[in-house]
Every structure is written in C-alpha cells, then in structure tokens.
C-alpha cells in the first residue's frame, strides 16, 4: 500500500496581515484633521501694505477686505466694489458676530477709498475695524 503524503504549499502556511483596520484608522484621522482645520479666507488680491511701528498681530479670525491702488475693493477672491462692502460685512457678521474687520489697503490706495470702506464696515455693524500694516 502506498502512502499518500499531503504536500502543503507555502501559501497555506504563510500568515497574512489584514490592513483594512489600518486603512480605517487612517481615514478617520484624515477626516478628523480636515474637520478641525481652520481655513483662512484671503482677500483674493495682493496689496503692498504700508509700514507702521505700532502694528499688532490679531489673535483670531477676521473679515479681510482689500483695497487696491486703483480703489478696487475685494473680499474672498471676488471684487465687491465700495458699494458692496456694507452688505458683505453685514452678511458675514450675521454668521459670526463680533468678528473684527481688517482692511488691507494698498500703500498707494487713495485715502478717500480706504475711508469709505472703513465707514461702510462700521455702518454694517462691525465692532472693530483695523488697517493691516507691516512692521
């Protein structure tokens, strides 16, 4: 009588590692970091800010409005114009009240355009309106 040996292949003996729980944990961490990240809304246009010796850093989020050298007013990547400042600031203050408004006026921007933007922001209900400068 002939004996039959059962030959086991190497794939049957090898243990495999299931990485699906690892992938689940990585996705959960990714979602956590995306949800907890604070996104800064930029004005959408570059301006050269004037220098000031008494400038201070802001600690919290702010509504950023840019005034270019050509007196064009931008907020959130779109041009809103001087007439749109009041409506935009009022709408943003409804979402997050007591948010300071920071105006990034170009150093070559006319003073009249900057003052109109400051007045419009205050009329919209902004408690704090500041001008962005460089140290």
TrEMBL record:
Pfam family, one: ExbD
Family membership noted in the UniProt record: Belongs to the ExbD/TolR family.
Subcellular location: Cell membrane
Transmembrane segment boundaries: 21-40
Leader peptide range in chain numbering: none
InterPro entries from the UniProt entry: ExbD
Main location group: membrane
Name under which the protein is recorded: ExbD/TolR family protein
Swiss-Prot/TrEMBL keywords: Cell membrane, Membrane, Protein transport, Transmembrane, Transmembrane helix, Transport
Membrane topology term: Single-pass membrane protein; Single-pass type II membrane protein
Protein source organism: Luteolibacter algae
PANTHER family from the UniProt entry: BIOPOLYMER TRANSPORT PROTEIN EXBD2 (PTHR30558:SF13), EXBD MEMBRANE COMPONENT OF PMF-DRIVEN MACROMOLECULE IMPORT SYSTEM (PTHR30558)
């Amino acid at each position: 009588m002939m004996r039959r040996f059962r030959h086991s292949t190497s794939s049957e003996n090898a243990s495999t590692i299931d990485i699906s729980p690892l992938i689940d944990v990585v996705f959960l961490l990714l979602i956590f970091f995306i949800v907890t990240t604070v996104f800064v809304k930029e004005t959408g246009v570059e301006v050269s800010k004037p220098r000031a010796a008494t400038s201070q850093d802001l600690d919290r989020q702010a509504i950023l409005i840019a005034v270019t050298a050509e007196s064009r007013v931008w907020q959130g990547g779109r041009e809103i114009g001087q007439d749109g400042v009041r409506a935009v600031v009022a709408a943003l203050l409804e979402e997050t009240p007591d948010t300071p408004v920071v105006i990034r006026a170009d150093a070559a921007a006319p003073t009249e355009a900057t003052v109109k933007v400051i007045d419009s922001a205050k009329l919209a209900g902004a408690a704090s309106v500041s001008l962005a400068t460089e140290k």
